[in-house]
Write a structure and sequence with these properties.
five-stranded antiparallel sheet; five-stranded mixed sheet; 11 helices; about 55% helix; about 475 residues
């Protein structure tokens, strides 16, 4: 049988409080019982001392008899006198165990056969039978023990008080149990309602029905969870929109070169004897296939960044040497576009993943060449920052990027000039890939416009070691 959380909590609170009341009751009752017992023993010991003093006085001041005769002759008088003074029933016994005095001679004689032998051996005996306590102690004379003192006291009042106290704790415990159960049930019912609302919100998100506000507002952990579920809903919704936008864009971008390739393939089938058409088709198919390959490669790299970031292999890299090498690799493409690449580099070392830096620098250098003007230039500069990091700047003499679009150029598939991007073979994924790779290296990238025109992409990488990549 399934028990709801509110019932479990209410039962737990009730059991916890009942346990606390139970333990407290036992401790208090035991303490009361122990206190009553100790006080009674003190009283009886004190009365025994008084009785022995009185007996001792009688022995010294009266006619001198042997202890046995003295107890037979004076026992009854002493019992009545001591009983009246103590307010208890008092009995005297001689050394043979025979009763020689009783302050209440008409009352039923107590049976002390099982305990008087201990008192005759100079020991104190306590015995409780029901509501009566018997106290037996040695009766002492000037020369030693001469008999046994026996005080008999009623415990009825003490036992009644103890039972009343027990009943009070029982009633209080029952009240606490009932009250705590009801209170816990009411409190947990409120919490359970909040948890149900959170579950309903989670179920809505699971089926795609995203929430437009937190399920409730509270200043506690459940309130924080409510805000977290709302933020999660927004994040999932935004992620789905981004994914849908990404899929729509990539579908469009894939269709464009494939359409062109398929169109020229159909033309080749129709006019396979036309040399001019064959050359044109070959060039177009080669260009579109290269564009398609680059698009697929960058999409795969973007997807791999989130899954395989642990595959980075940081090492110490000479930034100036790497940039010089990459500039040499891109010289052929720069000459094809009529662009001159120059650099002003300072010797600098950086701890980073080499392949990631190559991807970053190649993409920025490729863009600077493709989106430049005829006979334009690309300048690569580097410097060491005051805090020890490295700054690398790629500046071209192209048409630039409008200020309101500088952040959007890092979005997947976004291009400032779509027609020019298609003409140059751009996919709109390069800068998105660059930003993610820069972030993985704990760096930053920003866009600026030099006063002389064009655009500058400025990268900053912090000084660090392999611990940042651990």
């Amino acid at each position: 049988m399934r028990i709801s959380l509110k019932w479990k909590f209410a039962l737990f609170i009730a059991a916890l409080l009942l346990f606390a009341v139970g333990v407290l009751s036992v401790l208090v009752l035991n303490g009361v019982h122990r206190y009553q017992k100790e006080e009674m023993e003190k009283t009886l010991n004190r009365q025994a001392d008084i009785a022995n003093n009185r007996i001792g006085q009688q022995v010294v001041t009266g006619t001198r008899f042997d202890p046995q005769t003295f107890m037979q002759l004076q026992g009854q008088n002493l019992a009545v006198e001591i009983g009246a003074a103590s307010g208890m029933r008092f009995l005297l016994y001689d050394m043979t165990g025979a009763r020689t005095g009783d302050s209440l001679p008409m009352a039923e004689s107590p049976d002390v056969s099982g305990v008087i032998s201990h008192a005759l051996n100079n020991k104190i005996v306590y015995r409780v039978l029901g509501d009566t306590e018997d106290y037996l102690a040695p009766a002492r004379g000037p020369d030693g023990q001469i008999g046994v003192l026996h005080f008999q006291v009623s415990l009825a009042a003490q036992n009644a008080f103890y039972r009343n106290l027990q009943n009070s704790f029982l009633i209080a415990g029952s009240g606490v149990l009932l009250f705590s159960f009801v209170l816990g049930l009411l409190y947990m019912n409120r919490q359970a309602k909040a948890i149900r609302r959170l579950k309903e919100a989670a179920d809505d998100i699971r089926v795609g029905d995203f929430i437009d506000a937190p399920p409730f507002r509270r200043e506690d952990e459940l309130g924080s969870l409510s805000d977290g579920i709302y933020e999660m809903s927004r994040a999932i919704q935004g992620s789905l929109r981004t994914q849908q936008h990404f899929i729509n864009n990539i579908s469009h971008e894939l269709k464009t070169p494939l359409t062109s390739i398929r169109a020229y393939t159909d033309l080749l089938h129709m006019y396979e004897d036309d040399p001019g058409l064959v050359r044109e088709a070959r060039d177009v198919i080669d260009k579109e296939a290269a564009r398609l390959y680059e698009l697929v490669e960058k999409v795969l790299k973007l997807a791999a960044l989130d899954k395989y970031e642990f595959e980075q292999q940081p090492e110490k890299i000479r930034i100036d040497s790497l940039l010089e090498d990459l500039s040499s690799r891109m010289r052929g493409k720069a000459e094809k576009f009529g662009v001159t690449v120059s650099h002003a580099l300072v010797p600098a070392e950086l701890w980073a993943d080499r392949e990631s830096l190559i991807q970053i620098f190649l993409n920025l250098l490729d863009n600077a060449i493709k989106y430049n003007v005829e006979n334009g230039t690309v300048l690569i500069r580097s410097r060491i920052m005051e805090e020890g990091g490295v700054e690398v700047e790629f500046t071209d003499t192209g048409v630039g990027i409008p200020e309101d679009r500088r952040e959007r150029v890092f979005e997947p598939f976004y291009t400032v000039n779509r027609d020019r991007a298609r003409k140059s073979g751009g996919s709109g994924l390069g800068l998105s890939l660059v930003r993610q790779l820069v972030n993985k290296q704990h760096g930053q990238i920003r866009v600026e416009h030099p006063a002389e025109g064009g655009v500058s992409f400025i990268l900053t990488f912090p000084a660090g070691d392999d611990e940042k990549f651990g």
